[in-house]
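pls ignore typos typing on phone
flavin-adenine dinucleotide + seq
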Amino acid sequence: MPDDTRRFCGAPVIDYTQPIDTGEVPENGADFDVIVVGGGPGGSAAAAYNAMNGCNVLLIEKDVWPRDKVCGDAVGGKSLSHAKELGVLELVDASPHYVVDSIIFGSTNGSEVKVMLPKEAYAAKGLQSGYALPREQFDWLMFYRSQEIVREHGGTVIQGFSVLEVTHEGEGDSARITGVRCKAGGKRGDGPELSFTSRVTIGAGGYNCPVASAITKGINNEPLRDDEHFCGGYREYWEDVEGLEGGEGPIEIHFIDEVLPGYFWLFPVRDGLVNVGIGMLISEQRKQTGMKKSLKKIQEWVIKEHPRFSKRFANAKMLEGSAKGWQLPFGSPRKKAPSYQPRRNAMAGAMTVGDAASLVDPFSGEGIGNALLSAKMTSKHFDRVAHAEGFPESAAVDYMIELWDSLGKELTNSTKLQRMMKWKRLCNLVIGKASRKPAIGELMSEMIASKETQQVLWNPWFLFKTIVLP
Ligand SMILES: Cc1cc2nc3c(=O)[nH]c(=O)nc-3n(C[C@H](O)[C@H](O)[C@H](O)COP(=O)(O)OP(=O)(O)OC[C@H]3O[C@@H](n4cnc5c(N)ncnc54)[C@H](O)[C@@H]3O)c2cc1C
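k done
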C-alpha cells in the first residue's frame, strides 16, 4: 500500500486521490499470454484473475489514475463478492462509502415503495447488500489491487497508453486477433507508439472498446452498436440533498412524467454527497422534442421546478465540474442477433468483458457486477498451456455460450421490466399496489436476490394479483 495514508473513522486508509505507480513500460514488440485493454472494473478484474491463473499479463489503460467515470456509483451484491475475492472489499471498507440497505421506487403519480434489500442472504456470504461510492474511488481501488496482483505474478501494467489498433492475421473464418498497437498520450499525443502480441487479447475498454469494435464490425461485419440497446446517462454530484443524510439507507429511482421513458435517480455516495442523474434509451431520446431532447435540461428542470423534488434541493449545492454524460450498452437480447447474444463477444485470439461485451442490466443500469463476472469467466476459458499456440475459435464460442447461459435469463427479465415501466399507467399501478401491499414489496426484495423469484414476475397469475385484485 502507498505510504501516503489518510484516516477515516480512525482507521488508516489508502489515498485514492494520489497517482498509482505501475512501473516500467515494456519494450516494443514484447509478447504476453494475455493483453487486457482498459483498466476499469472489468479490465482490472480480468487482468487480476488471469494473472492469478499463472498468465503473463499486460494491462493497458489510456487514462492515468486517479480518473473519474460517469456512473450512478451503486456497487451491488454481485460486484461485492468479486471485490471480496480480489481483496478490494477490505480497501472499500476502509474508505468512505454509503451502505445501501433498500431501494425506493417512485411512480409518476407520487406513490413510492421502499424495497428492503435481502440483508440476510448477503450476510450469509459475509457481504453487505450493497455499497455506493464515487467511481473515481472504487475504480482506483480496483486498479490499485489489480496492478499489485499482476505485478506480483510477473506481469506488466501501463497507464496513459491508448490502444489505437487491434492487430489480426487471416481473414473471414480463419481470422485471429494477435495483439495491439498503442500510443502514449492518446491518438494526438506525441508519445512513443508500441506494439505488443498475445495468445489472447481481452477487450475491457467500455462501450467504445477497440477490441469489441474489431470483433464485430471490423472483422465479422456485424454491428457494434444499436440505439435500441444503448442508453444515455447524465450525472451530477450534489451536497446536502434533503432526506439523504447519513452513511446508510436507501437509494432512490423515480419514474416521473417529464423523464419517462427514462428515470431519475438519487444515490447517496457518502454522508452528505449524492449522485443525481437521469438515464434514457438512446432510441427513445431521439424521439423526444423540446427540453426532453437533453438529459441535462430535464435534470435542471426536475431539480429547480418539480413539485416533489425542488424542495429537497432548496439548500443543496452542485459540485463544480461534476456534470457529465456517458453511454450504457445494455445486455438486452437482440431480436435478430447476427450471431450470438447479446452480440458477438469473442473470436479466435480475443474475448470482451463488461461494457465492451454490452452487458449492462437494462432495468437497473447496473454494469459493474456483470463486468466482474465476465472478467472472471475469461480466466476459466483461457488456458495458457492448452492455448500456447493461440486462443482458438472453439474456446471463443464456449465463452460466448457460457456468458449467455449465465446472464441471459436475468437480462431478458430486466428487459421486460424496463419495457413495462415505460407504460405510465402500468408503472403507477405496480408501484401504487406495492406501496399498499407489503407482500408485493417483499416479493420485489426477493427478486433482487434470486433469479428463480424473478420468473414469478412474468407469471400471469402474479400479474393478475398485483394489478387487478385490490
Ligand atoms: C450514467 C451511468 C450510470 C451508471 N450507473 C451504474 C450503477 O449505479 N451501478 C453499476 O453497477 N453500473 C452503472 N453503470 C454502468 C457501469 O458504469 C459500467 O457498466 C461499468 O463501468 C463497466 O465497466 P468496464 O470496466 O466494462 O468499462 P469502463 O468502466 O467503461 O472502463 C473502460 C476502461 O477502458 C479504458 N479505455 C477505453 N478505451 C481504451 C483504449 N483505446 N485503450 C486503453 N484503454 C481504454 C477507459 O479509460 C476505462 O478506464 C452506469 C453507467 C452510466 C453511464
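The longest helix spans residues 393-421. The CA atoms of residues 346 and 396 lie 5 Å apart. more later
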